[in-house]
Amino acid sequence: MNTALPTTYTGPGLVDLQVNGYAGIDFNGSDDVFTAETFHIVREKMAARGVMVSLPTYITASPERLEANCRAYAKLVESDAELATAFPKLHVEGPFISAVEGPRGAHPIEHACNPADLPDLMKRLQEASGNRLGIITLAPELPGALELIRWCAENDIVASAGHTNATAADIRAGVEAGLKMSTHLGNGSHQTLPRMDNYIQAQLSEDELFASFIADGHHVPFYTLKNFIRAKGFDKTVLVSDAINAADCGPGRYSLGDFEVEVSEELRCTKVGHAGLAGSALTMDMGVIYTTQHTDADFDDAWTMASTRPAQLVGIPVPSDICVEVSETGFRRVS
Predict the structure, then answer these.
(1) Nearest 10 degrees: Cα torsion 298, 243, 189, 113
(2) Strand ranges in 60-121 using DSSP code E only, listed in sequence order
(3) b/e burial code for range 110-134 (CB count within 10 A of at least 16 → b)
(4) Which terminal Cβ of the chain has fewer Cβ within 10 Å, N or C?
């Protein structure tokens, strides 16, 4: 393993494709959180750690809330060029996910549904966002999912498999329809799976699929992350935080949409009253550090997984070079 860290590093600004909230601000609450002040707080806090671009991420909720939040986001970035650069697109994670316990994860079951049941929802969200949908995470086995994946491909939106109970055949059909990525692969899954024939192995085997990973040591043990990255290869690996508003804040209780999350001293995030994970308190700089320390990736490789590669995947400009000071506790941007 390549455990050595540089003391300083210059490279493209980091890009986080999955951010549910940050620095005490929950993107999944009511749309009144979408103010220039709150978004600039997030932008500045993330930039201090080297993250120059991120995709606000909406988890499963009612169509009305999703549409309202998309409109509020669009209004905000359309009136502020600095915010438009920092938050160029959205990631919609649900509601088209498996309702099965395990794959559903912390998403509210009452809003999990099939694409066939709401065939125009993503078109409405695309319009509400000002054509800024960047990623749609869905379960490819659901009725209407293949049609939605094809629509995503036609509209330059990354369709990503996540919170899925798919068979290997479902995954293959999704890839043939235009599926491009696996969202936080290994998570949003059953606690126990068939030893060999399961949807994680099926996605790892699909060479066309990119895969995102949450490198916090909680979502995927570091030895498993090492194996997963070996399977996908550096060129198909993207690091994400899946951060909730606890990121950069520390232990305590936080909101994620309509429920509460308990964050432990070790920064493990669980839905109150449940054992399962609910987002993370990871900051992207620590994801780069942990990947360097615990996998075959060196620091350059890990940085690319969190900067150039995610930008290119969703079709946004690669951020300009920045310089950070590096320590085992994180990055500090110096220029």
Answers:
(1) -140
(2) 90-93
(3) ebbbbbeeeeebbeebbebbbebbb
(4) C
Q: List the chain pLDDT tens, one digit each, 335 residues.
A: 557 899 999 999 999 999 999 999 999 988 888 899 999 999 999 999 999 999 999 999 999 999 999 999 999 999 999 999 999 999 999 999 999 999 999 999 999 999 999 999 999 999 999 999 999 999 999 999 999 999 999 999 999 999 999 999 999 999 999 999 999 999 999 999 999 999 999 999 999 999 999 999 999 999 999 999 999 999 999 999 999 999 999 999 998 988 899 999 999 999 998 888 999 999 999 999 999 999 999 999 999 999 999 999 999 999 999 999 999 999 999 99
Q: Cβ distance 182 to 160 under 8 Å?
A: yes
Widest CA span in the chain: 53
Cα separation of 115 and 138, whole Å? 9
Could you give the C-alpha distances from 54 to 39, 295, 312, in angstroms and in order?
Answer: 11, 24, 13
Tell me the three state secondary structure of residue 51. Answer: strand
Which are the contacts of 275, defined by CB distance < 8 A and separation ≥ 6?
Answer: none
Structure tokens at 89: 């697109």
- Asked, as a colleague might, if the bond just before 319 is cis with ω within 30 of 0, I would say no
Residue 310 half-sphere exposure, CB side, CA atoms within 13 Å?
35
Of 326, 252, 317, 328, nearest in space to 13 by CA: 317
* Encoded amino acid at 164, one letter: T
- Name the one residue in this structure whose structure tokens are 């919609």: 92
Q: Determine contact, residues 19/27, Cβ cutoff 8 Å.
A: yes
The span from the CA of 306 to the CA of 57, in Å, is 17
The tokens of 90 are what?
Answer: 């959205």
Structure tokens at 26: 């929950």
Lookup result for tokens 């990973």: 213
Is pTM beyond 0.90 here? yes
Dihedral angle over CA of 219, 225, 229, 235, nearest 10: 50
Q: Where are the beta strands (DSSP E) in 107-233?
A: 133-138, 158-161, 181-182, 210-214
d(CA 204, CA 211): 8
